[in-house]
């Protein structure tokens, strides 16, 4: 369920208290989730928000801090995953943090300048941009001239999203790897400003196209929290169905693409064929291959078409089981996955890994169970966890999640309650809400603040690929070129979600 | 054990049979049942003074524009439509209705704007030129200029066994030096504008540009703002527009075959005329 500010616990902290409280919370087993800034009373009075999870089964806890003109302390030294959020806040809100370990711009590319920080209240002028080389680390050692630099992208081979990858390598060995993201930064958070909340859903569906249902769901949860709106039970169950259909086609694509990188050609073709069948099922259910256009704050816009769905899913399931069995028995495929791209449990936790990536590194976390949203608490949800920490474990988690999603879809079809499809959802003026949902790639959060007229004033998007792209390079340094594509595919990242 | 595994996949693949469907090119391709396209517009059903559809339209595809007589009328630009269907929900009179009109590729931007008069068809010279240069083959360089990844998801689907794009002589190529067509997705972010222009400059002539997806056509919901342009408007000359959010694989295939003059354009004046004879699929 989404949580209203009343259900959430929020504390006001002074800037100087933040580092001490952060360390204490981490020692007590909490995890920082994300932070953002907004300007409730004008550009001179920023307000920082920190969202943390005290522990399983508890709702998120919020810290609010108004640092005034003072520069707030960075929390990255104790909670490294906050580093990117702080740097993003510096770029887009103009707030610098003291003792930030890496105070370079993150979201704004080298050579990009904002005449005025874009997320300050009011209109944001276009960025000015004179492309300049990315600052890359200095190389030292006995023979630095022997080390080669491969800057790859932003336009890459095949049909891929734009991003630039810089490899320092020696023969086959990668010494250092740096992904230069944010070529696709579109300023999505700013685009929500001034919209009526219902129209924001259309935008949330288009932040990360292949996670549109879960993004829109997290957004709707946030608006519903601000409106203290109770979603009708039938709509909550159908939202589970849509979310799991989205997981299904994404994970099938993932397996097909992973086979592409291990050059298992028939496995690639079959994975992508099953994905196509899942997308055609989506079309029959929703009219959209990506399941767009059904969600709205308060419930659903119209009834999805469920006739024939149970039979379609049953056919897909039986073909998938044979396929998954084949993958699990193909040594040439498994040899390339096992021990590739190792992400240790501690690293995954500290740097903020989320979703199947975190669960394949032994972190037993899933908000569908731990901070249940929608109807998940009423349904037979299983959480797939592995402790292999490698590309193989990430594949295993995805395979098990496909089976689990199918079980959830069948449970929804068998027990779907009758009733209304949408409740009135009118957020209180100047209200706020926090919502979340488990996308196929991990947890998405939306924090929504409304103005006195009930329109959107500030929307913060915490997207799972932003979290997992931060983690990913740690699994690439000191590995080899031949494994890179397999490792990247095993993470299942999107650039659009990260760059926003 | 290892010896037995490779034949297993081959047999398994053969046992699956042929997944590829025939390309009929008639707008009723298999596997697309229920796929919603651009809402149809019938201005005769509009109520005076009603602006419900325009208020429900996030990307501004529906606007009220004052005519010569000073009366405001609804103007529909499908180049900005993201197929969210909110106008259909909002319309009180049925002037906007859901449809399966997704084969919306057009050579001219004007043909995406609803108008009473259908625009003229192109001449035959270009057709001969295209056949002479490309034969029946086309190589595409795709550039993501800031999409949401929805368009990439559908472009990648073109290579799955169902659509099997290669059978039509159309290929994605890594180098712009080998490319005939620059296929652009996304609203063109400030950072991707430069690499996009470089990719275009690297292409040999004759070369073509396709704006795939509403973002590339007009900016859609995501264009403008502090970090984006409005698609290819004012960036590159466009030979083919394909709005859609995202355009479905058969819509993309229709557009690519249209570029090669293997199927005719179906949309005229913002609509697919009723009773239009089905497009002839000469390659099926």
Structure description:
The complex is a heterodimer of chains A (500) and B (284). Chain A has 500 residues and is of the alpha+beta class. Chain A contains 16 helices and 14 strands. In chain A, the strands form five sheets. Chain A has a four-stranded mixed beta sheet. In chain A, strands 7-8-9 form a three-stranded antiparallel beta sheet, with no helix packed on it. In chain A, strands 12-13-14 form a three-stranded antiparallel beta sheet. Chain A has two domains: 9-107, Beta Polymerase, domain 2 (2-Layer Sandwich), CATH 3.30.460.80; 188-499, Cytochrome-c3 Hydrogenase, chain B. The two termini of chain A are 25 Å apart. Chain A has helices at residues 18-27, 82-93, 188-191, 197-204, 212-227, 233-261, 265-286, 309-328, 331-337, 345-351, 355-359, 367-370, 391-415, 464-471, 481-491, 495-499; strands at 9-12, 31-38, 47-53, 61-65, 112-113, 128-129, 148-152, 164-170, 173-180, 295-296, 299-300, 432-439, 442-450, 456-462. The longest helix of chain A is centred in the middle third of the chain and has 29 residues, at 233-261. In chain B, the strands form three sheets. A five-stranded parallel beta sheet of chain B has the order 6-5-7-8-9, sandwiched between helices. A two-stranded antiparallel sheet of chain B has the order 1-4. A two-stranded antiparallel ribbon of chain B has the order 2-3. The termini of chain B are far apart. The longest helix of chain B has 15 residues, at 2-16. Chain B is of the alpha/beta class. Mean pLDDT of chain B is 85; it is low at 277-284. In chain B, 24% of the residues lie in helices and 13% in strands. Among the domains of chain B are: 40-102, Alpha-Beta Plaits (2-Layer Sandwich), CATH 3.30.70; 125-259, Rossmann fold (3-Layer(aba) Sandwich), CATH 3.40.50. Chain B has eight helices and nine strands. The chains are: A alpha+beta (500), B alpha/beta (284). The interface between A and B is large, with 74 and 69 residues.
């Amino acid at each position: 369920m989404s949580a209203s500010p009343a259900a959430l616990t929020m504390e006001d902290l002074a800037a100087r208290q933040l580092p001490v409280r952060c360390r204490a919370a981490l020692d007590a087993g909490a995890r920082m989730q994300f932070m953002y800034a907004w300007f409730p009373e004008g550009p001179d009075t920023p307000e920082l928000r920190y969202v943390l999870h005290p522990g399983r089964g508890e709702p998120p806890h919020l810290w609010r801090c108004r640092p005034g003109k003072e520069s707030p302390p960075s929390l990255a030294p104790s909670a490294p995953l906050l580093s990117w959020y702080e740097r993003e806040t510096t770029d887009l809100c103009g707030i610098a943090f003291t003792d930030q370990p890496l105070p370079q711009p993150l979201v704004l590319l080298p050579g990009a300048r904002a005449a005025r920080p874009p997320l300050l209240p009011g209109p944001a002028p276009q960025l000015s941009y004179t492309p300049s080389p990315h600052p890359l680390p200095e190389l030292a050692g006995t023979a630095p001239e022997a080390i080669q630099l491969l800057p790859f992208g932003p336009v890459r081979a095949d049909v891929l999203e734009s991003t630039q990858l810089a490899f320092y390598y020696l023969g086959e060995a990668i010494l250092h790897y740096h992904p230069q993201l944010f070529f696709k930064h579109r300023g999505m958070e700013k685009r929500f400003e001034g919209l009526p909340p219902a129209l924001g859903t259309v935008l949330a569906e288009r932040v990360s196209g292949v996670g549109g249902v879960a993004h829109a769901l997290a957004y709707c949860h946030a608006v519903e929290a601000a409106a203290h709106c109770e979603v009708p039970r039938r709509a909550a169950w159908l939202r589970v169905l849509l979310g799991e259909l989205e997981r299904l086609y994404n994970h099938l694509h993932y397996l097909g693409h992973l086979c592409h990188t291990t050059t298992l050609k028939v496995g690639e073709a079959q994975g992508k064929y099953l994905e196509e069948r899942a997308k055609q099922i989506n079309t029959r259910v929703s009219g959209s291959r990506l399941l767009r256009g059904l969600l709205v704050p308060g419930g659903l816009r119209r009834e999805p078409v469920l006739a024939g769905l149970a039979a379609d899913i049953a056919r897909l399931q039986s073909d998938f089981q044979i396929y998954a069995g084949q993958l699990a028995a193909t040594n040439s495929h498994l040899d390339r996955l096992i021990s590739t791209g190792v992400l240790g449990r501690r690293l995954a936790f500290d740097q903020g890994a989320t979703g199947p990536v975190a669960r394949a590194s032994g972190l037993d976390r899933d908000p569908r169970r731990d901070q249940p949203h929608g109807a998940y608490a009423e349904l037979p949800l299983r959480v797939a966890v592995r402790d292999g920490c490698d590309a193989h474990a990430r594949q295993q988690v995805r395979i098990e999640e496909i089976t689990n999603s199918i079980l959830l879809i069948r449970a929804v079809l068998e027990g779907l309650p009758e009733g209304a499809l949408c409740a009135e959802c009118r957020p209180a003026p100047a209200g706020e809400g926090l919502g979340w949902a488990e996308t196929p790639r991990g947890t998405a959060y939306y924090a929504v603040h409304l103005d006195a007229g009930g329109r959107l004033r500030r929307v913060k998007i915490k997207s799972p690929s932003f979290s997992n792209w931060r983690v990913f390079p740690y699994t690439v340094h000191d590995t080899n070129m031949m494994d890179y594509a397999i490792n990247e595919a095993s993470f299942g990242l999107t650039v659009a979600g990260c760059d926003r | 054990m290892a010896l037995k595994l490779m034949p297993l996949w081959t047999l398994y693949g053969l046992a699956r049979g042929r997944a590829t469907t025939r390309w009929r090119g008639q707008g009723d391709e298999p596997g697309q049942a229920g796929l919603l396209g651009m809402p149809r517009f019938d201005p005769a059903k509009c109520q005076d003074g009603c602006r419900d559809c325009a208020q429900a339209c996030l990307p501004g595809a529906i606007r009220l524009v004052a005519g010569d007589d000073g009366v405001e009328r609804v103007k529909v630009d499908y180049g900005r439509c993201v197929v969210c269907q909110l106008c259909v929900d909002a319309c009180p009179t049925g002037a906007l209705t859901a449809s399966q009109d997704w084969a919306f590729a057009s050579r001219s931007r004007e043909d995406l704007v609803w108008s009473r008069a259908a625009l003229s068809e192109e001449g035959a010279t270009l057709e001969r030129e295209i056949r002479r240069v490309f034969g029946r083959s086309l190589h595409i360089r795709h550039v993501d200029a800031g999409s949401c990844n929805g368009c990439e998801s559908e472009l990648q689907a073109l290579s799955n066994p169902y659509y099997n794009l290669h059978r039509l002589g159309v290929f994605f190529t890594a180098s712009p030096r080998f490319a005939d067509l620059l296929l652009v997705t996304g609203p063109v972010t400030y950072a991707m504008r430069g690499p996009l222009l470089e990719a275009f400059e690297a292409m040999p002539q004759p070369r073509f540009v396709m704006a795939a997806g509403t973002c590339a056509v007009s900016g859609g919901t995501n264009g403008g703002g502090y970090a984006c342009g409005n698609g290819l408007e004012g960036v590159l000359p466009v030979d083919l527009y394909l709005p859609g959010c995202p355009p479905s694989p058969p819509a993309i295939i229709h557009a690519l075959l249209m570029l090669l003059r293997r199927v005719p354009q179906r949309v005229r004046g913002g609509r697919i005329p009723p009773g239009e004879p089905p497009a002839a699929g000469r390659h099926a």
